[in-house]
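We close this part of the discussion by returning to an individual protein. Part of our work consisted of pairing the sequence of a single chain with a tokenised description of its backbone. What the numbers capture is local backbone geometry rather than side-chain detail. The amino acid sequence and the backbone structure tokens for this protein are reproduced below.
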Amino acid sequence: MNPISETEPYFLGIDLGGSRIKSVAVSASGKTLEHESTPFEDRAMEWANRIRDRVDHLRLRRGEPAAVGLSAPGLAAREGRCILHMPGRLQGLEGLDWQQYLAFPTPVPVLNDAHAALLGEAWIGAAQGLENVFMLTLGTGVGGAAIVEGRLLRGHLGRAGHLGHITLDHRAKNDDVGTPGSLEMAIGNKTLLERSHGRYTSTETLVQQARTGDPEAVGLWLESVRGLAVGINSLINVLDPEAVILGGGIAQAGPDLFDRVAEILEGLEWRPKGARVRILPAALGEFAGAYGAARQAILSRQNH
């Protein structure tokens, strides 16, 4: 942790996850001043209270932040003041105005969590300096986001970047949003128990078993990675990126993931004049969304 002078402004980024709240205090240049990850249970807006407590605690110790940004699951409202659509969990999140809730004097910009993760990586992570890049977060499901010609792709309703919900097999059953045979279903942890016929509940365990040479584990892992590579290949043709960033828990498989994806893309990727797309690991880990939220707060302050 780097020291901060009492007069130096700081910016606060908060990322509301499924079971943890991550926060970072940063300088305008992206220097990390402090960070924290706090678990919570999804009940009675406990997550909202913990976020407010965190902000109040920082106010007491560091003074008022120059700006605050927040990232969360769901579709962010067009004006960026709240999460507009998040069914099924985190009851109370939809429509919650964070500027009002945190009693903050200026608007608190709100981003979708995957959008925020890529914004963080583009600021001080693996996607620095890239004008065209997309990111996949591989975990329980598959999240995504894209920057096209230097701008974060949001779309009409905020759906842009839900790259895990592209179809790989139109004959397969539908995923959570009604997409048949999606990329998320091919590699996400949420379908692993079914894909492995009850043998595995986590990709980490599957990869560990595949490393031992177990034929069933090897076959299932390679099939999962092929689904990912085929999806990446299709998205490359749509978005024409300089690089693809892979993050999330499944990306911790390291060479078992990245080397296999690269091998498969050797036989799939359209490479005009020999140009190939780089496949890069995310650099900011679980705090990517918090850094992205802080970056959005900085940009929002600059624009007002």
User: Anything to note?
Assistant: The CA atoms of residues 26 and 32 lie 5 Å apart. Residues 215-239 form the longest helix (25 residues).
